[in-house]
Amino acid sequence: MATPDEWLRLQSGLDQLEQGIVAFDAALRLIAWNRRFLDILGLPEALIDRGTDFAVLVRRLAERGELGSGDVQELVARRLAAAQQPRRFYVERTTLAGRVVAAQTQPLPGGGFVTIYTDVTDRSHADILTRQRSGWLEARVNQRTLELRRLNEALQDKIRQLEAAAAERDRVDEALREAQKMSAIGQLAGGLAHDFNNLLTVIIGNLGSLRERLEPALVDEYVAPAVRAGYRGVDITRRLLAFAHQQALAPMAVDVPALIAGAAQLLRRSLPSHILLACAAEPGGWPALVDPAQLENAIVNLVLNARDAMPTGGDLAIRTSYRRTDREDGELPAGDYVEVSVTDVGTGIAPEIRARVLEPFFTTKPFGAGSGLGLSMVHGFVRQSGGDLRIESEVGRGTVVTLRLPRAEGMAAPELPPYEPVPARDGRGQLTLLVDDHDDVRQALRRHLVELGYQVLEARDGDDARSLLSSVPDISILVSDVIMPGELDGIRLADHARRILPGIKIVLISGFARFAAAGCDWFDERRVLRKPFGKDDLARALEEAVP
Question: Looking at the domain covering 431-544, what would its CATH class be?
């Protein structure tokens, strides 16, 4: 048992502690405490003394509301029951004064317990502030992370847009380069075709005159093969002009299924027996605005290509359908179209080849078996007609080539009479002015005119011809090339002739397909005689010539 002095020294030592301390024995009587304990819990010093019952302190705290809400007796009873079986625990609570107090209880050997009270208000506030700052920082980090994620997504979208724009620019650049290349080739092809037309006019014209002067046996052996070769050259120049979009077209309203049905009768004769040709058409369609002869030629080309793609035979189909589009489709404006599809079950076209099949002179056939102008001619004709051409193909499965042609608005398809050559009449000595800057062409045409019974004056260009028209009033017919050097081309020369010699008949000839005729209401491009031509063609043009 400690002496009073010892208790005093012990009490003085406990009072030096910054923490509050209190101890109870097994009977729950107070055996030790310090002033810091009283300060922290706000208890009066007079309330306690050595041996004070635990229940007294608990009741005071319960009455002040320090132990929570509820009946005071029940609160005291619960605390006494817990104290009788002390255990180690730690708890923090906030006093009515707003202080945060941490209580740590430790059981004592032999019964009872000791509790240490620590004012952790500052630390708690710091923790709260830290948690608040941590929460704010976390929220800020989350917000910034979300912003960065959005920025990254926007950046990725922008990158994708730039990549798509770059790809589209590359595609457009490639398309532009391809268009420029094809345009350059087209201009070259058109120029070559014009030169060839002049050459072929000379060749075919002179061969025609020679044929009339030789014995039939010599004609068959020497002249006929040359004429056939000349007309093959004519076909090649027409294909060149078709590719260059410069061929002369005579569009009209065409009943496409009827035209295909007529062509199919001839095509079946040229197809081997193991290829079956079938034609079908949707009912209730409309006519196409197209040159019927060129359309028939295009279909023949496509069918023959399909035949070559089916060496083992199969089904070949030509189908006509009608489409109405309310918006632009590719390079075609909205409107009504006639679709002609040629479908085969042949070898198909590989993708790398499909990209080139419309190029002129490109062919997959063996050397000498094709000119490579077939599909390019068809494509040129369709584009010049205001339509387009599409190719779908799968290697080993076959190919579908579809032509889309514009509708002939408000036009009915006429029934075309069969072609009958107009017999040439005698020129009866009519004085004809022949104008062409190509000497050999002019010589060949002069021979034809003389053989047809016309008297001929010649001029090398429009300026020379104008002088003759002014000085020779007896000129009845003007035969002139359209494109010539000098101030006057053929159209302006004809316009001048009509003014000074009313009633003069006009026959214009040309190896070009297009030319300007501004201010000449009388000019009809369809009546231009296209080079090359033979004597019969010239005779027909002279017979049909009008002032």
Answer: alpha beta
Q: What are phi and psi of 139, to 5 degrees?
A: -60, -40
Strand partners, 20: 117
524: left (phi over 0), alpha (psi -120 to 50) or beta: beta
- Candidates 3.40.430.10, 1.10.468.10, 3.30.365.10, 3.30.565.10; CATH matching 250-406: 3.30.565.10
Which residue bears the tokens 């070769």? 229
Domain boundaries along the sequence of the chain:
4-119, 157-242, 250-406, 431-544
Integer Cα distance of 511 and 195 in angstroms:
8
CATH architecture of 4-119: 2-Layer Sandwich (3.30)
Displacement of CA 322 from its chain's centroid (Å): 23
pTM here? Answer: 0.46
- Angle in degrees, 0-180, between the axes of helices 292-308 and 256-270, rounded to the nearest 10: 40
Alpha-carbon span 512 to 530, nearest angstrom: 8
- Residues 313 and 306: their CA atoms lie apart, in Å, by 10
> How many helices (H) and strands (E) in the chain?
15, 17
Residue 235 confidence (pLDDT): 65
What CA–CA distance (Å, rounded) separates 506 from 528?
10
Backbone angles phi, psi at 538, to 5 degrees: -65, -40
Q: What is the pLDDT of residues 346-381, one digit of tens each?
A: 988 888 887 777 776 666 665 444 555 667 778 888
